[in-house]
Amino acid sequence: MIWEALVQPFAEFAFMRRALMGCVAISVGGTPVGVFLLLRRMSLTGDAMAHAILPGAAIGFLIAGLSLGAMTVGGLIAGMAVALLSGFVARVTALREDASLAAFYLISLALGVLIVSMRGSNVDLMHVLFGTVLALDNATLTLLCSITSVTLVALAFIFRPLVLECADPQFLRSVSRFSTVTHFTFLALVVMNLVGGFHALGTLMAVGIMILPAAAARFWAAGIGGLIAAAVAIAILSSVSGLLVSYHFGLPSGPTIILLAGLVYGMSLAFGPVGSLTAPVFRVRVDA
Amino acid sequence: MTYALAFENLTLGYDRHPAVRQLDGQVAEGSLTAVVGPNGAGKSTLLKGVTGLLPPIAGRVRFGTCTHNDIAYLPQQSDIDRSFPITVVDLVAVGLWSQIGGFSGLSTADRTLVDGAIAAVGLTGFESRFIDSLSGGQFQRALFARLLLQDARLVLLDEPFTAIDPKTMADLLGVVRRWHGEGRTVIAVLHDTEAVRAHFPETLILARDLVAHGPTAQVLTAANQFRARQMCEACDGPPHDCGRQAS
Predict the structure, then answer these.
(1) Residue A170's pLDDT is what?
(2) How far is residue B181's CA from residue B160's CA, in Å, rounded to a whole number?
(3) Structure pTM?
């Protein structure tokens, strides 16, 4: 019974094993990046950049069809361009960065949908917007795992400067020249993981697996190491259970995974031990 | 006179609006200088200019006995994200950045230094507390511990005692005196003229333009402070806080 519910789908079908591997890769690499997005109060920036990837991937699609390489390169270029451009616009004009990001991503989203529709069918559009986690081929899996490996190594290298860049950027700037390098390395990691997430979960859902587990983890751990560990655990849990639920009930996988991550977030918000709605209640009871 | 740093026709500002204009003067090696003046007089801007975070519009800061790498800078508290999940010991330990850099770990000797700095500001026992659980005074003590570890020849403090309880202020003034005794150069932006008179031998009064600079007893007079307020009210650009609470 438990075997059939939890293990058999993966044991029986290769596409489920691939989906599992892809989701775990995204969870392990993307979620720590999501934790830092959250701590830098850039959650919405991540969302905007996820949308911004679309026209780049769409142009790749226009040129080469559903080609992994073309869409990846296009997405990377578009994501970095929007990240840099919105920062630039915020610096040289009166518009604040959140407003310029919103402007850029709305334009990007419309442009991306238009470009995909020009050549592809509605199926292609759904593929781009919501991903195809159940149809990951070897090349895509290799890409996802590579992105995760690069992300983890890069995060290990920039960890201390990145923590300082979030907590006390002035201090970092006053003691070292790492500040700018750290900022742009981090942006590059965000874009890379969004592009990876895009292949599995689509542009609209990619940022979900980065931000929702990170937000949920905030109610489980206080320190940054604990936050990352809790977020990765929650992301993997949501991925596995999301795949199983979608398999047994015939639901689309990407949205199911994100919804389950949302469910964990809701539960954490209500019952988590750190700063949740009920945490003060429990603390009073313990003290009393 | 050997000088730690000198201002040469220094003009600093944002978006081409000068906040400090054509400042000349020298800060002596080992001196303890208070920078006072009305709000909007360019005091914080001057410190940012010295650190190099804000490049000058004109003129320059010339370093004498100090170099750019000898600076420890404490900005106003509001510039730090107090909700970030970092512990006191981690926040303090990065004061050793010039030795440990971005990657290497803390040696046993480094840990002793960190513990010593935390003890020196009276925060022993708070090491593993997160900074969002500290009071304003405790947090400022932690930042002073980090400054201690930076072991800098030139210490810049931007309103270090604003919204701090008297006991903490007295303790941290003790740290400042210790730096002075060790021959370090200290420049502090302050509002509290009583504290300036009691603890700071040199004073620089700023109202975008230099009002006066010299021994505190000669410089920090009612006449000079009045002149600073007038100059700041008369200054061009947006009036914002010019002249209000010049204490």
Answers:
(1) 83
(2) 19
(3) 0.85
Yes or no, beta carbons of A163 and B86 under 8 Å apart? yes
User: Tokens in use for A10?
Assistant: 């993966």
What would the two tokens of residue A130 be? 């919501």
Question: Cα separation of A28 and B236, whole Å?
Answer: 55
Q: What is the dihedral of CA A87, A93, A96, A98, to 10 degrees?
A: -40
Question: Rounded to a whole number, what is the distance in Å from the CA of A19 to chain B's nearest CA?
Answer: 34
Nearest to B112 by CA among B101, B97, B96: B96
Chain B closest CA to A62's CA: distance in Å? Answer: 43
Pairing label, strands B3-14, B58-63: antiparallel
Specify the pairing of strand B202-207 against strand B185-189. unpaired
Cα B13 from chain centre: 18
Residues A204 and A47: beta-carbon distance below 8 Å: no
Whether the predicted pLDDT of B32 surpasses 80: yes
**Where do we find the tokens 């809701």?**
A266
Backbone angles phi, psi at A269, to 5 degrees: -55, -40
B 128-167 residues with CB < 8 A to A = 130-131, 146, 150
**Starting at the edge strand that comes first in sequence, how are the strands of the sheet with B71-74 ordered?**
B71-74, B154-158, B185-189, B32-36, B202-207, B209-215
| Residue B238 near chain A (CB below 8 Å) | no
* B35-82 per-position pLDDT tens digit: 999 888 889 999 999 988 888 998 989 888 777 778 999 988 667 888
The pLDDT score that the predictor gives to residue B236 is 53
Work out the number of other CB atoms within 10 angstroms of the CB of residue A80.
20
Q: What is the pLDDT of residue B245?
A: 39
pLDDT per residue as tens digits for the range B94-137? 999 888 888 888 889 999 999 999 999 999 999 999 998 999 89
**Top-confidence residue, B26 or A85:** B26
Cβ atoms within 10 A of the Cβ of B104, count?
11
B97 interaction partners in chain A (CB closer than 8 Å): 175-176
**Calpha distance B55→B71 (Å, rounded):** 16
Point out the residues of chain A with pLDDT beneath 70: 90, 282-288
Spell out the residues 6+ positions from residue A6 whose beta carbon is closer than 8 angstroms to its own: A244
pLDDT of residue B78: 64
Burial class (CB in 10 A: 0-12, 13-18, 19+), B81: middle
Q: In the prediction, which pLDDT does B244 show?
A: 39
Could you give the CA distance from residue B21 to residue B28 in angstroms, rounded to a whole number? 21
